[in-house]
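Weekly sync notes, structure subgroup
Attendees: PM, AL, DS (notes)

Item 1: joint prediction request from the bench team. They want all two components modeled as one assembly rather than separately. Inputs as received:
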Amino acid sequence: MKRRRYIAWIFLAPSLIMYLYFFVYPTIEAIILSFYKASGFTQNPEFVGFKNFSKLISDDSFLAALKNTLLLLVIGGIGIFLIAFIFSLLLGSGIKGKKVYRTIIFFPFIIAPVVHSIYWGLLVYNPRKGMLNQFFKLLHIEALAKFTFTEPKYVLWSVIFIVIWVSVGFYLILLMAGIERIPPYLYEAARIEGATELRMFFNITLPLVKEVLVIAIIFWGINAVKMFDLLYAFGGILPPRALWTNAIYLYIMGFGKRDPIFQLGYASAIGVVTLLLVIVISFIIRKLIRREIYEY
Amino acid sequence: MKIKKFSFRKFASHTILIIWSITVAMLVVWMVIASFKTNKTVFSQLWALPEKLSLVNFSNAWSNLDFGRYTFNSIFVVIISVALIIIISAPASYALTRMKMKFAQPITFFYLAGMGIPVQLLFIPLFKIMAPLNLINSLPGLIVVYVTLSIPFTVFLLTGFFLSIPSELEDAAYMDGCNEFQTFFKIMVPMATPGIVTAAIFNFIGLWNEYMLALIFITGKENKTLSLGLYSLYSSLQYTSDWVSIFAGSVLVIIPTMIIFIVLSEKLISGITMGAIK
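Output from the run, pasted for the record:
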């Protein structure tokens, strides 16, 4: 039977229509709205050019949120990939129970972020009452028994730790999949030549896992920048200012916390900056890790 | 000497992995323990087991705090969303990878670019688009949002799977006189089942757990999903001090994803592996 190419459009149509109307169109609308001053959904927006963006540069809350977003992205990313690589080495060395460990490490990733916020906020980090303080009290380490993990100065680091702990498993799976594709004879040859484990990691594993690593890092970058659920729920009624990221600040400027704010144009400008951030990140990662494909 | 060194390394590896695993197990164990306690003992006897195994926190959460209703809302919204996501994304992924259509590459890129859009950017315009369609504070409205926003990632996963299917079977089907629809449903869908299952599980877990979009598009109490209900209860904690209900609610949120994970984790893990790495 002759294949009719136009049929492909029938297969594509339902998703394309929804995608265009409820995804692409609002994206363009948001970018346009970021050049307008609009307070509330009923008022007519007024064109202000780049005013929202120039206001952002001098908005201390926004700059703090941007800094938090970048810290989460960079520190969280370093933590996740460092630990994931260590685990992939531990699990790749022919250890017993590899699959069980991998499954357990992955497990937190499928638990609702709001549940993580509740568990860590109420049961683990809770000042004096929580497991961490109580645990150090049992060990008679007074300094840590009284340490407040959720005070503004440290809360971001405490939450970044949660994010690392939750995400490691997912990136571990990606990395392990990449590593397992590397043919074993490369390692055997290196071993015969007398290469150390560390050398083999840097000269064989890392270059050959590059392709997967690029996908994984970009994936992390996108997810870090738009992360909302875990951070927003942390602290219950409203997240402490020290935890505000772009995503949270946008939500607060748009919809408010207890009381609506509805600075729609301004909130959209925050979103546009965040979008630019995603584009820049993807670009930098691709530049940093040049995509030479090694044939093997 | 060599053997001894080797076994020390194994011992160290196991120690690290076991400590990490314990921290994971603690999450489930302590959530469950806390959900059986009373507000009086939950923190004062943090390390103790519950005094008695009473389901009162669960029945309180289920009926008095409306978690029963939220659960049904979640089941309704998530199952229909996942079904629709697959129904529209699988043919699209097939068309983009297998049907030799014009502009397949740029369109694929156009779909995947959606993964890079920070969702928060869409909140305000999406709210404006949905309001006149009466889709605000409605479960069908939430389904529309969930389905649309899941398209890019699902297409990303599924195009990977469709690309990996050898073309001989497809050619044979056409030669035997199947049309495009028969080829897709009879040959390609069964071959792509592992990918479709992965995409379905992934979307199920993601949507079951998500509350951000529900927080925006669900304004009434009666339409809350389970995760949103839990979030709302948690954010009103300072007025109620009812911790144990929150823990019981958390356990309710965890149960379905946990069951799916226990049954299907191998499928999910191998699916991520195959889908992300082409």
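Discussion: The mean pLDDT of chain B is 90.
Action: AL to compare against the crosslinking data before next sync.
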